[in-house]
From TrEMBL:
Alphabetical keyword list: Membrane, Transmembrane, Transmembrane helix
Organism annotation: Sporosarcina gallistercoris
Signal sequence annotation: none
Protein name listed in UniProt: EpsG family protein
Residue stretches spanning the membrane: 6-21, 28-46, 86-109, 116-134, 161-185, 197-221, 241-262, 291-311, 317-334, 341-361
Pfam families reported in the protein's UniProt record: EpsG
InterPro entries named among the record's database cross-references: EpsG-like (IPR049458)
Record flagged with keyword Transcription: no
């Protein structure tokens, strides 16, 4: 536990350094410096670190014994199985496989942060204290899918449907739930205003109320996942993490509205991607802000629906991961220096406090400490 507290404090120090140096920092080199220690920590962890890593280890040993084009005995997705076969055919053991997959995850996250974040160290601090770091050591298969989806932002902004669909499909080969990200494309194309926002949130609340009925309809139509009903995946189970995620997502969305991050105006700014609705109901976006608005809205809706199901937190990850860019942009937008310091300090302290509390009182959620290196296992 002390290791991870030290890591969080280290990135607070990095935020101060970045603030002092400002534009003098080489963004590419600084991004590598920030993420390299975390990459080493995740890539060289023992199979006992993380609730799912040992299962991945055993699955890799099984897959490595199969012929390349045979039907796999593993229940994992096709893309993950084929990647494991490819790497094992090169003579690499599970550690080599873990290094390769971890490198891809951190490369994708690093590229995203480098391109879209206004405060690099803050984004990495959020990555650590929001427990995404722990996620890469637990549900690494889903994080591969998330890492693939991060490459789709440019396709969303430029409305390249074919390219966007291919990226989502590729991500679903590693975790089937990634297919839900397809909803981003039509929502990005909408002329969003406050009325539509209220309607979308209301739809989320109704979906939460009738969640059990919707799930059974979905299972009857698809004929799949019926076994999940008995496995607790679609039950609430009193998990306080669901309330916690809802509070965070709601807070970030409301703060964005209150400080005017998504502006309302009757004037059309030629430098922005503006909605053409009339009056104050219109919301004015820059290209990046349109994406951040939709993912923030969807993260909120999924967390509302998640009040009925623990598995929905997995779906939420596909949208909340974009907070790595949204929150630094949110802070940068605040014109008042005093308010900016208050809000950013509150977020930093709040994230650190929640990070500490969860490690102390809910260590079973991630099982990432005590930490062991692979060669000490």
């Amino acid at each position: 536990m002390i290791l991870y507290i030290g890591i969080a404090l280290f990135y607070i120090m990095c935020m101060l350094i970045e603030k002092i140096l400002g534009q003098r920092i080489n963004r590419a080199g600084w991004t590598v410096f920030l993420l390299l220690p975390l990459f080493v920590l995740v890539a060289f962890r023992a199979p006992t670190i993380g609730t799912d890593t040992l299962n991945y280890y055993q699955s890799y040993l099984l897959i490595a014994q199969e012929s390349f084009f045979s039907t796999s005995a593993s229940r994992l997705e096709f893309g993950y199985v084929m990647l494991a076969r490819l790497i094992s055919s090169l003579g690499l053991d599970f550690l080599g496989f873990q290094i390769v997959t971890t490198f891809f995850i951190f490369f994708s996250f690093g590229k995203f942060i480098y391109k879209y974040s206004m405060y690099l160290a803050f984004s990495v601090y959020f990555f650590v204290t929001s427990r995404m770091l722990f996620g890469t050591m637990n549900i690494s298969r889903q994080y591969i899918a998330v890492a693939i989806l991060l490459f789709s932002v440019d396709s969303l902004q430029k409305r390249r449907f074919v390219r966007f669909s291919i990226i989502v499909l590729l991500a679903s080969f590693f975790h089937s739930t990634a297919i839900v990200f397809l909803i981003m494309y039509p929502l990005i194309g909408l002329k969003i205003n406050f009325r539509k926002t209220i309607f979308i949130i209301g739809s989320g609340i109704l979906s939460s109320i009738f969640f059990d009925y919707l799930i059974r309809i979905f299972i009857n139509i698809t004929g799949k996942y019926e076994g999940y009903l008995d496995g607790g995946y679609f039950n609430f189970e009193g998990n306080i993490a669901i309330y916690f995620n809802l509070l965070i997502n709601f807070s970030f969305f409301i703060v964005g509205l209150v400080i005017g991050y998504w502006n309302t105006s009757k004037e059309i700014n030629k430098n922005t991607l503006s909605e053409k609705t009339s009056g104050k109901n219109r919301i004015k976006f820059s290209p990046n802000e349109k994406v951040w608005y939709v993912v923030c809205l969807l993260a909120l809706i999924v967390s509302i629906v998640g009040l009925n199901s623990t598995i929905m937190s997995r779906i939420e990850l596909y949208f909340s991961v974009f907070f790595l860019a949204y929150i630094p942009s949110l802070i940068q937008t605040i014109k008042s220096k005093e308010i900016r310091v208050i809000i950013s300090s509150s977020i930093i302290v709040g994230l650190f406090a929640s990070f500490l509390v969860i490690m102390v009182y809910r260590p079973n959620w991630t099982t990432v400490f005590p930490y062991y290196w692979y060669w000490n296992w």
